Amino acid sequence: MATIRIDETLHKVVEIRATGDVILDVTFENTNACTKSIPADALQKLRASKMPIPSPRIFYRVRLDTLKKQSKYFLHLLGSDVFGEGRSINEAFTKLAETNLNPTEIDAEMLPRISIVDEMDATASYGREAVFHDFLRIIHGADILNKSLSILYITILVVMADRFDCMAPISRYITSKMASFRYPQTLDKKAEETLRMKLLIFYHTNQAARLLSATKELVLRGSTAWVEYDERSPGFTTAWWDLPEDLEGELSHRRMCILRTIASLQTHFIELYTSRTQQCTLGYDSSPSCDSFQLGEMIRFLTKKNLLSLVPFQSCSPEDPDYIWPEPYTGEVEHLIGLLRQCPSYQIDKNHSHCGLRTKILPALDYIRDCMDTGIGIKVQRWKTDRSSQTWIIPKAASHPGRKPFEVAGKIGAVDTRIFDFTKAKQADMGLGANSINIDQSAKSLFTAEKWYWTADPDDVTLRSAKSAWKF
User: pTM for the full model?
Assistant: First the structure.
């Protein structure tokens, strides 16, 4: 067993390659803020014994040429004299050459050392040294030693690959040698952390279908990190709670856009029935009464389902802490759509069928669900190569102060409002909904609009001309 003596202390050397020519001197810093461990019960046992959480220092014998070939981090750090680590290695190799010593054949104590500190903030996990050992084995072309894979293990492996900028070999290994790993199911909101770990893995390893599904799931389910306004707790500091390359902000924004679009249904139909234009087209003497009846039943239904808040005028401004704001919706989007689909077919009498909200809202909900099914997840390659066309976050038009940007045929222009017309959208998609070849653009146009016309009748221009008395 190879050893190295430092400050009168003998340390074991982990030989990733017995012919290695440099030593990585790695300290794995740990604190009481650790929340997880590898193995899973290691942290629990350590705390049960009331022992302090150690920060192990481990020495790895590795090949310098392999590090520089596989990792851009090590290439920049050690491949030139720009940094002190690179200069010290070159000086050590020069001295060894002057004494005719081959670095691949001498004892570990004689090799140059590179000090690395691995902080725990990115993973909040104890036992990372086992993952780092396998990480080094993978980039040296060997198989891992760990035979008990877990979602945490793979996540830490990906985080390390990201830090040392060597994702390519790690990604190949995960998608080939770990292809049989069964990722845990995330069936409820309590499993959000696991879902986020999966999302981080799928994004960095380019698992397109899985990332598409995972991002859609997080958007529809929502995140505790998006609704908590207090300063983040230590549990939210890990890499998976702040997804990379603008993903975190994009997914949060997509959820907000979807909820705002669904909320527009209520606004639209309440405005429709509070306008001066009669909605009941049957031509009976009771038609005006039918409109009033439908409006009342609509408001009763929405308030009963906690989807509408009737707030009276207030004596304070919105900036005042006493101002009454409706509670934001934090549940699953599918549940929200399910609530709206429960709207009954209200009739003022037997002659007035299909006059109410249900007949009008179901086609719109079907279209929204079609767009959600295949149009809201992140497509990994497009996101990495053409993010500007994929994002739902509309940039501000710098050349048009005070005017809002919009997108047509992939070009950014400026008009007063981005408008979605349900009738025109259905005609453009030829009634195919989610089967349309342009579903991504259909979903983006729907969910990033600022004004929605949901009335299915193409001849109905009520909301374009009528002035509603309803105010939000």
Answer: 0.86
